[in-house]
Structure formats: C-alpha cells, structure tokens
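Model it.
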Amino acid sequence: MSVFSKYCYLTLLMVLPLLVAACSSTNKELGDSDGMTIGQPEDITYGVPEAAVSEDGYGTASTVAGVESSAVPGSQDDLNVQAGDTVYFETDRYDLNAQARAVIEAQARWMSSYPSLYVTIEGHADERGTREYNLALGERRASSVKNYLIAMGVDPRRINVISYGKEQPVVVGADGSSWAQNRRARTRVQ
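Modeled.
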C-alpha cells in the first residue's frame, strides 16, 4: 500500500465518525448550560441565494435576489453573496440542520470554482457557559462544517478550524435573539 493510500485510509477512518456525528439529526447534549432551549429567530438569514446568480460580461458584478454586487471573484464578499459565509446552531448543539447543510453545499460549490483558495472555519458560541465549554463547543461546530465540506469534495488541506467560543459575539445582548445569532460557524477566506 502506498503512502498516499495509507494517508487516505487513515484520514477516512478519522473523519467518518465525525461526519456521521455531524450529520445525525441528534447528538449528545454537551451539558453545562442553564437548560434553556432557544429557537432560531425568524430574522436570521442563512446566506442561501434566493435567485440565480448572473455575472456581467467581465465577471465582476452579480445579481442575487435583484441586488447587484460588485464583489471581487474569490473574495470574502463573493463567498457571502454566492453561498453565504455563516451557519447557525441550536443551543448546546453542533449538528447541522437542513439550512446549514444547504449553505455548506453552496460553499463547497463556490470553493470548487477557486481551487487555490484556503478558508478558516471560525466556531462561535453564545455567552452562556464557561469559557472552556464554549471553546470546545465552537471547535465542534467548526469541525462539523469542515467535515461536511470534506464530504462534499473539498480538499481538507484547504480548511483550517479555529474556535473563539464566546469571545467574539456578533451581537451583544443577554436575550434569545442575541444568543441565537452568536451560535454560529463562519467560513472566512484566507
């Protein structure tokens, strides 16, 4: 067996259990929360384009849902317009719901158009729980996204994972809406 074959086999053995856990409809509760379950607020958008994307003759402007974008192809703005850069999670969860999978599938298609780009998946949590707990939860969330991208055919060497836990909230607040927006994984173009 060649070194490459051994590497592929070992990678598959390591990723398969994580992928199964990430794609399952339920996962073991992580504990250390205050027992509250907050649903996703209706005003969060998941970044899935509602309309087909079209480019002008030069590939510099695109239209999504009737809004023209001049995002540079292969940039963070382009990723956000074409696929969305953020997925959201339920309280104390790191499994991917249908909306999250749709965004990640769009990200994988986008990444296949730019094979030389690398991304970092940033895992985040809301303010509840200890620093250590939220760092671990953010890591699991980011790894779930990474594993799904790999399953969609993205080279794992192009993806880094980092957890910020509760240290970088996108919305400051101690209410359900704020917490829901902070429970996320963001794909950032490097």
